[in-house]
Amino acid sequence: MRDITRTPDLQPASRALTSLVLGVSDSQLTLPTPCEGWVVGDLLDHLVGLTVAFRLAAEKAPDAAPGGPGNPTVANLDPEWRHRLPAQLDHLVEAWRSPGAWSGDAAAGGVVLPAEVMGLFALDELLVHGWDLARATGQAYDADPETVAWVHGLVSQQESSGGTPGLFGPSIILPAEAALFDRVIGLTGRDPAWVSPAAAAAPGTDRRFAVPEGRQAGG
């Protein structure tokens, strides 16, 4: 059971994601990502939207997309995404640091959940989409162990051979001795060994797994 007297801090995941965002070049916007059917620009457009949606959820503001999120697309990506996303990530972190953010209910994307669960989904989005972006663009990603542990507590409850529509694909179950972050990635329907063919062919691409060799994230 999660200790409800504690809540996670979104800053480590936010900081890591900001670093990755700033490392994306214009030439990489059409690279494939581990999210089936999405290119890097689609993923960035999704991040622009979700950082607003989850901030509003923390603030208990009206749901910005009560009909559910639209389909992200590079064609709609804000030209100022390199400046906008880091700022929105900072605002998201501050919103979820408010004690009231984690109490009551919160709404985002047409879904209403207990706020303490919604906050964990926000954290999951930052962590896992950070991995997606790192893999798609060939960047290293050193995930914060405590963040990984919080998200594992969430996604381990979502394990399903059929996936969770709108959230996760069918779970890929790794052995218990696998790194905790790799198990988190598998539980969200991703292959921890995924590498973009285009990124893999680029000079200087970092082909390491999500967790540096010899380190067990969160475990």
Output the strand order for the largest sheet. 1-2
Helix/strand-derived class? mainly alpha
**CATH fold-level label:** Four Helix Bundle (Hemerythrin (Met), subunit A)
Shape: globular
Whole-number count of domains = 1
- Tally the helices: 7
Fraction in beta strands: under 5%
Q: Helix coverage percent of residues?
A: 40-55%
Nearest-angstrom radius of gyration? 16 Å
CATH architecture: Up-down Bundle
**What series of H and E elements makes up the topology?**
HHHEEHHHH
Number of strands: 2
Task: Write a compact overview of the structure shown.
The protein is mainly α. 43% of the residues lie in helices and 4% in strands. It has a single domain, classed as Four Helix Bundle (Hemerythrin (Met), subunit A).
Detail the topology: elements first, then pairings:
Layout: H1 11-22, H2 40-58, H3 81-97, E1 105-108, E2 111-114, H4 115-137, H5 145-155, H6 180-187, H7 197-201
Antiparallel strand pairs: 1-2
Helix pairs in contact: 1-3, 1-4, 2-3, 2-4, 4-5, 5-6
